[in-house]
Amino acid sequence: MSGEFGDLPTGVIAQPDPVILPRADRLFATRASRLRHLSEGHPMADWLRFMAGLADAQHDAVAAVVAPAVAILPHTPPLDGPAHPRDPSWRRALARILVEPADPALPDQTRQVMAALRDRDPEPLAAAWLAGVVPATEAGPAMFVAAALQVYFAAVAATLPVGDIALLAQRGLCPVCGSAPVAGVITGAGKAPGTRYLHCGLCATAWNHVRVACIGCGESKSLTLQEIEGGNGAVMAETCDACMGYAKMLYQAKDMQVDPMADDLASLGLDILVGEAGWSRLAANPLVLAG
Amino acid sequence: MELNRRGFMRLSGAALAASSVGALGFGSSGEALASAVRPYKLARTTETRNTCTYCAVACGILIYSLGDGAKNSKATITHIEGDPDHPVNRGTLCPKGAALLDVVHSPTRVKYPMYRAAGESGFKRVSWDFALDRVAKLMKEDRDKNFIAKNAAGTTVNRWTTTGMLAASASSNETAFVTWKVARSFGMVVFDNQARV
User: Fold this and answer.
1) Which range marks the domain in which residue B76 is found?
2) Is residue A279 helix, strand or coil?
3) Of B15, B21, B81, the CB nearest to A291
4) What is the pLDDT of residues B67-110, one digit of tens each?
5) How many beta-carbon pairs below 8 A join chains A and B?
């Protein structure tokens, strides 16, 4: 590529990759350490430390997953959440996650939920959760099922041939499993710094999405980035006055360590303020289902 | 009540208590969070997509501004960077483009037509009508004096080489077409605009 333009570098300004598959070997370990870091001095420190322990268990559970062969068809997410025939090994991942942590601070309610879920068939709850809706009485067990399904879908997504996966016409949904993103990351390094990747809440696949366009309705005229005053600009809620929805955007340029799931869990205070100001979150964090 | 992983949702202290956070016995954490954010307000930033004003390459830019968007408040532009999604420049800018923020806030930035009459020491603000009439008059004087209808060999060339024009960088096909037709209909050959790229 040299010669035509003298000694100027050419070909260094790369087009962003459309899809980046998760690295199942380090996804949950990175999240656990980020959660521990964010828990320091946090009003929800107990809960964030518990979630860090959950991410550790998820990391250990990855090895339990046996990835089935997956056909890739055009215009269809290959691991379409409710339709994908789950390999039964996901239940081994769940069993690993339900091993009670040796933490004396663990609330009794958590112990009870874990024990009850160990003794029942999790398939109906998993099917309901993947289809989108679970009864409010299942809020506790649904979180552990969701955590196990995250392990399963991330481990299977990691085995897919990335070049064969095309973005969906609905750019706001995951091209691998069709789920909603938990947050977006505006990259600060890598092949195409400054581009936006949405991170799937289920399979942790990242896919490119144009910036300054609402990921819910596509409108770009009435978007605003909002953060809690005095923040460092790393975690912003991108609010849209056209659909009155919002999603969180994480700016690596302000903090290279941001993790979509961990930083979302540690910034629920922003959700409270933005919700009170009138916007609704486009999709829940899979581990914090709320009404 | 049902919990939905796909649809819209709003989080509040009460919603947190009814969520998996409360169901697992961390409800007091949720209350602590709700009261911790109570004293705070939201700060607003806007990213706006635009085109660099300088040259016909027309690089995409993102303009960051602060302000609550209320009718009577004026937004302050705080930062300008290359648009990483723009196919022309993919986030990069040349030194002129990278200095756009300084142009925006420059005390010497020209915001309206200025005129310095012959013999006067400084510029004064004038109306657009005055400025356009003045430009038209000077263009006509110069064209009448220097227009070349035929070259030395007697071939009709109809060219006007003593006045040039530099036109917009962020124009549509239609604007570029009209600009081109206007400039060329004068016989103007020293001319650059978006249509060249």
Assistant:
1) 45-105
2) coil
3) B15
4) 766 666 777 999 999 999 999 899 999 999 999 999 999 999 89
5) 205
